[in-house]
């Protein structure tokens, strides 16, 4: 099963590794330094052994504590964003939650970890009375676009040349709350 946890300073390097391995991306040291302060907006997801897996209560002696606490397999990192992507839209003071990174290590994909992280962020965004959750997705990445579409997101814009380093356009995908 999967468990979500806040990212303390001591675990920022794990986030860094996941971002690098899954997305091949690098962010500034400030981007990482801000993470522990984000609370529910930045999470690591751990795979932990099901509690019913062992019938022997003393069995935990066989497991190093790092394993019983779970293995980090993915991450989500968001920002609270006052920016209104609809430039001519009416003034609106409700914030938006912007998903900057969502990533699951390849061997752990298709098991619900990504959906669990997304649902967590949507629920937190509702608690913040956010207007929407949104993100950029590569215009050529139809798999990810469909993944978001199946979870209620719709395409709300296109940003030519958004990926400056590697080239390519982005779509904005938005879930209105
Ligand atoms: C997008 C991503 C975060 C989803 O995480 P995940 O844990 O695989 O998500 P889930 O298990 O909740 O859902 C996976 C979906 O793909 C299907 N799937 C099955 N096997 C899969 C596999 N090996 N890999 C990916 N998806 C798989 C699932 O059935 C599910 O389908 P559904 O949308 O009909 O429910 C993950 O694939 C990833 O890290 N991709 C690379 C990074 C990326 O593209 N990030 C988003 C950029 S905008």
TrEMBL record:
The keyword Transcription does not apply. Keywords: Acyltransferase, Transferase. Gene3D superfamilies: 3.40.630.30. CDD domains: NAT_SF. Signal peptide: none annotated. Residues 25-177 form the N-acetyltransferase domain. This is N-acetyltransferase domain-containing protein. It comes from Magnusiomyces paraingens.
